[in-house]
Amino acid sequence: MNFLSKGVNFMNVIKKQSGKELFVTVEGNIDSTSAPALNDQICDSLNGIESLVFEFEKVNYISSAGLRVLLAARKTIGDKGEVIIRHPNSNVLDVFTM
User: Fold this and answer.
1) Do 31 and 64 touch, CB atoms closer than 8 A?
2) Mind giving me the DSSP string for 15-54?
3) What does the alpha-carbon distance between residue 4 and residue 71 come to, in Å, rounded to a whole number?
4) Residue 1, pLDDT above cutoff 70
C-alpha cells in the first residue's frame, strides 16, 4: 500500500504474512502525517501475530509519531511475541537512541 505524506515526502508499506509472522517493509519517511496510516495497516493485521518484523532499510526518517506506532505494536503483541526492526540507517538509529 502506498501512502502520501507531507509535500513530496512518500511512504510505501508492503506487508507479508507467513503463519504467525508479519513482515512489514517500509520505504520513505514515517512522520506525523504518515504514521497514522502505518498504524492502521499494522493494527488491522496483528491478530494472532507472534513476530512482527519491520524492514527499515529504506526508511529515511522516523519521528516521535513513528516511534509511537512501533511502541503500540509492541504493546499489542505483548509478552507472547516480539517486534524486530531490521536494517535501520544511522538517522533512524539516532532517533531510537535519544
Assistant:
1) no
2) EEEETTEEEEEEEEEE-TTTHHHHHHHHHTT-TT-SEEEE
3) 22
4) no
What is the maximum alpha-carbon separation in the chain?
39
* Sign of the dihedral defined by the CA atoms of residues 90, 3, 5, 9, in that order: positive
Q: How far apart are the first and last CA of the chain?
A: 30
Place of cell 509478552: 79
Using the predicted structure, report yes or no on whether residue 5 has a pLDDT greater than 70. Answer: no
Pairing mode of beta strands 51-62, 82-86: parallel
What pTM did the predictor assign?
0.86
What's the chain's average pLDDT? 89
